[in-house]
Amino acid sequence: MKFTISLVALGVLFLQYASGKRIDAVATMKSSNGVSGEFNFSARTAGHPPVNLQMEISGIKEDEYYTYHIHEKAVPRNGSCKDTGDHLDPLAVNKKDGKYSCKPSRLLKTCELGDLAGIYGNATRNSKSKDTYKKSVVLNYLIMDNGSLSEADAKFNVLGRSIVIHDKSNNRIACGNITIQDSS
């Protein structure tokens, strides 16, 4: 009897998870100095982790590196990357005391979840792709959902936020909003 109830409960949980819709989003950006980027997000089930991310940053100059982050706010109509807020930090690990240091081996305790470069590495040139940086990663703790989320879950949602690319002097040089991509 207990085994049957457990199987039924497991089946209900599976159906709830499997019934969610796949969701895709994209952020594209271009700077005046030739750096551009495209960040493609996908989640098999809306509202549930993980989110897969494929990123490509082009126009990288020799001996340069760029950092890239998910920022709290969308890019406003005026296009100002400066108005996108701080990095997405739903776990509030950055105490804003000047001591922030992301250690990917201790991700949940030391990294802003939006600090993609801190977690996965800076964007740099490589010999094969010349001026382009490409990387695919899995964002295990973030979600995408355009429905109604609890306040707690909404902090982990990437939709309605932005991607910002910074130069090595930390200037915000390119930004774009993370928006749902039409699946039709």
UniProtKB/TrEMBL annotation:
Pfam families assigned to the protein according to its UniProt record, in alphabetical order: Sod_Cu
Q: Which residues form the signal peptide?
A: 1-20
Which residues belong to any copy of the Superoxide dismutase copper/zinc binding domain?
35-176
Q: Which UniProt keywords apply?
A: Signal
As one GO molecular function, the record gives:
metal ion binding
Query: PANTHER family of this UniProt entry?
Result: AGAP001623-PA, SUPEROXIDE DISMUTASE COPPER_ZINC BINDING DOMAIN-CONTAINING PROTEIN
User: What is the recorded name of this protein?
Assistant: Superoxide dismutase copper/zinc binding domain-containing protein
Species for this entry: Smittium megazygosporum
